[in-house]
Amino acid sequence: MFKLPSIDQVIGEFDTVLRTLAAPAGSVRPHPDRDLAEAELSEAEKAHAAGLMRVNHCGEVCAQALYQGQALTARDPAARDALKQAAAEEVEHLAWTRQRLDELGSHRSLLNPVWYAGSFAMGVTAGLVGDKWNLGFLAETERQVTAHLESHLDLLPEQDAKSRAIVKQMAIDETSHAEQAVALGAAELPLPVMKLMSATSKIMTSLSYRI
Predict the structure, then answer these.
(1) Which fold has domain 42-210?
(2) Whole-prediction pTM value?
(3) Which value, in Å, is the radius of gyration of the alpha carbons in the chain?
(4) 110-158 pLDDT, tens per residue?
(5) Three-class SS of residue 195?
(6) Alpha carbon distance 184, 203 (integer Å)
(7) CA 111 to CA 47: how far, in whole Å?
């Protein structure tokens, strides 16, 4: 049975919001691009790479909010632990993409607070529906994110090895999260829900690439 969060939990969740949106994220693992040299990019290529990395950073902001909401309403401790583990790795993704944006001389999406709020609400809803659906939502989210990241490998400038290394490692991590959710008993989401998730993602990526 779902229990309302305590005051300490509410404070902790609010702290997560502030750290995700405002504070620089840290990474336990070395950055995937640490040993790679900066490529020679034209201004157009640099702007395009920055737009794609801004989309990826925004996606990680959404992931933090989504997993935060899901973990808050999850009933099964194993499901809650899986969500928290996924969120911890997503924090590293935040650090990698934020640093890459800085290196490319660009900014994070100005709409991040909007995406965070919407993703948190979706996560809370998924958790309230039940753990197998909660995990199903996690698995489908990670599948769609993996496909999205793999598409970026075709879109990034070929010589931009630093951005490509980050995206490749992120895709590996997201696939692992999906597989873990399935192993824990994730339910297959109805097709209309998956299509709605995909449509929402397209709106977010289109806007965050530019803004």
Answers:
(1) Ferritin (1.20.1260)
(2) 0.76
(3) 17
(4) 888 888 888 888 778 877 777 778 788 878 888 888 888 888 898 999 8
(5) helix
(6) 30
(7) 18
151's tokens: 């598409």
- Note whether 93 and 163 are within 8 A (CB): no
Q: 51: Cβ–Cβ under 8 A, 6 or more apart, which residues?
A: 106, 209, 210
Listed in sequence order, the residues at least 6 apart from 78 whose beta carbon sits closer than 8 Å to its beta carbon are: 184
- Listed in sequence order, the residues at least 6 apart from 7 whose beta carbon sits closer than 8 Å to its beta carbon are none
Helices (H), 22-157: 43-73, 77-103, 112-129, 131-155
pLDDT at residue 162, rounded to an integer? 92
CA 131 remoteness from chain centre: 20
Higher per-residue pLDDT: 125 or 15: 125
Closest listed residue to residue 119, CA positions, set 90, 95, 97:
90
Residue 85's CB is within 10 A of a number of other CB atoms, namely: 15
How far apart CA 52 and CA 45 sit, in angstroms, is 11
Instruction: Render pLDDT for 161-194 as a digit per residue (tens, 0 to 9).
Output: 999 999 999 998 888 888 877 887 788 888 888 8
Sequence-ordered alpha helix ranges (H) in 43-76: 43-73
Q: How far apart are CA 203 and CA 55, in angstroms?
A: 11
* Tokens 């994730």, located at residue: 186
